[in-house]
Amino acid sequence: MLNGRIMKSRAIPAAMAAVLLLGVGAAACSDDDDDASSSDSDSTETTETTDDSMDEAGVDVLLSEWIVEPDPTSADAGEVAFKGDNQGGEVHELVVVKADSPDDLPTDADGAVIEDELPEGALIGEIEDIDPGADASVTLNLESGDYVLFCNITEEEDDGSIESHYAEGMVNTFTAN
Ligand SMILES: [Cu+2]
After folding, report:
1. Does 7 have pLDDT greater than 70?
2. 54 pLDDT band (50/70/90 cuts)?
3. Residue 71: helix, strand or coil by DSSP?
4. How far is the CA of 157 from the centre of ligand 1 (A)?
5. Are strands 78-86 and 57-64 parallel, antiparallel or unpaired?
6. Distance 65 CA to ligand 1 centre (A)
7. Which of 10, 106, 156, 174 could pair with 117 as two cysteines, CB 3.0-4.6 Å apart?
């Protein structure tokens, strides 16, 4: 008797579960159909984003061993879109710092720039770790003045010495007018 009751009370939830599963399955199928049709009819708004980007300057920055070459080398102050284009064989980065000259940047014993010791606010932005053959972009708001563009990656060589891309020459200047 006791056994029979337990069997029964187990059987009911199992049956309910089966019904629920069927219900979910059916709902999922019809949901797909609904989504397909409703997304067609929902797309009435969101076409008001016209070209605000026209007044944004674009600067292509060629990165390779061991050069940083911005093109053009100056732009109007304001929004400037930098595209770091790594045409070299190693990973590079693009750091944008407001400074009159590379000579003003603090460097360590390996010749790398000590970014933590830059004057407050001088580090405007950077794109880290751009793979060989890849490019990446960042849009920065530049006030008029002189800037230094560089790659600050360091690598430990097989002999234990540190190779600084900055010390190798991956630095150039840029002006916002
Ligand atoms: Cu580099």
Report:
1. no
2. low
3. strand
4. 14
5. parallel
6. 7
7. 106
CATH number of 56-176: 2.60.40.420
- Say what the pLDDT of residue 57 is: 85
Q: What is the pLDDT of residues 105-162, one digit of tens each?
A: 999 999 999 999 999 999 999 999 999 999 999 999 999 999 999 999 999 999 999 9
In this prediction the pTM is 0.69
Cα-to-centroid distance, 145 and ligand 1 (Å): 24
Ion ligand 1 — residues with CB < 5 Å: 92, 151, 153, 165, 170
Which amino acid type is present at position 18?
Answer: A
User: How many CB atoms neighbour CB 108 within 10 A?
Assistant: 13
CA of 173 to the centre of ligand 1 (A): 16
Q: Which long-range contacts (CB under 8 A, 24 or more apart) does 53-57 make?
A: 55/79, 56/80, 56/81, 56/139, 57/81
Report the alpha-carbon angle 42-44-50, nearest 5.
135
For residue 123, report the distance from its CA to the centre of ligand 1, in Å. 17
**Ligand 1 centre from 27 Cα, in Å?**
54
Distance 63 CA to ligand 1 centre (A): 7
